[in-house]
Amino acid sequence: MSQSGMPESADARPADAVSGNWVDRYAPPFMRPYLRLARADRPIGAWLLLWPCLWSTALAAPHASENVFWGFNAGNWPNPILLVLFFIGAHVMRGAGCTFNDIVDRNFDDKVARTRARPIPSGAVSVTGAAIFLAFECLLGLVVLLCLNRAAILLGIASLGLVAIYPFMKRFTYWPQIFLGLAFNWGAILAWAAVTGRVASAALVLYLAGIAWTLVYDTIYAHQDKEDDILIGVKSTALLFREKTRIWLAGFAALTMIGIWLAGSLAGESQAFYLVSVFATGHLVWQIGTLKIDDGADCLSKFRGNHLFGALVFAAIVAGNVL
After folding, report:
1. Which of 50, 71, 158, 323 has its CA 20 to 30 A from that of 12?
2. Which pLDDT score, from 0 to 100, does residue 5 have?
3. Architecture of domain 28-322 in CATH?
4. If we measure between CA atoms, which residue out of 106, 89, 263, 287 comes closest to residue 192?
5. Would the pLDDT of 118 be above 90?
6. Could you say which DSSP state residue 27 is in?
7. What is the pTM assigned to this prediction?
8. DSSP secondary structure code for residue 73 in this structure
9. Beta bridge partners of 69
10. Of residues 26 and 151, which shows the higher confidence score?
């Protein structure tokens, strides 16, 4: 039995997982609890971690002396080998971050309806088993990181401190989303270094824009848990903003787009970048304009919709480079 009195189940599906996901359908039963621990059944978080990496890889492409990686010259296109490495790395390290977060938050998750069925509080995975799995995930992430250049490797190591402190911030501040943004958008800096061997102002501005974007989507996400968060004593921007959430989100969305446009300007993007980015702007406007902060299903849907926003920004950057 778990601490909540629920029966242990290796096949318990968390409440916010998509029905019929690939883990439920295809993964061997003994692997399912660990894949759920890594959120492999809910890949949206990995995409939100990945998009800043892909944005920066595309934005930096024309600025490498030769956009060559493992002998492949991509020209003004984002290097596909780097895109694949970042795809693998983001999914692995997002899983590691979730595993670490669940170990740290296991006593909180047991008290929240949406998280009670997660592998640790449900009893499907022990804390020791989760720690061993975390070590395995970190090892895979290190293998991917070592495929990059020296500057990117050093930046990747530096990001571990941000990843480590994030789970504790909700205990002390109403702004844990800032710390999530600092960790989740580090790839904007790392990817630029992976392409060019250095860090430029465009990458730093893109990093700040990503943090503002994280404040948008994770505040929306946090509105699902606000009642439980009050009961267990943890903090979030959703609890801080309350009925003024839409106003705050509009401000963060504006900062997001201003930052993305400024990064594009610093990188020398063409007019096509700004034209295509209008669609990304429209998506943010739609999210905020139609958001129902007291409807958990709507908050989850809007949160997941940020995958499309990331894809639209990436398309704008690529268009700006090649058209």
Report:
1. 50
2. 39
3. Orthogonal Bundle (1.10)
4. 263
5. no
6. S
7. 0.90
8. E
9. 72
10. 151
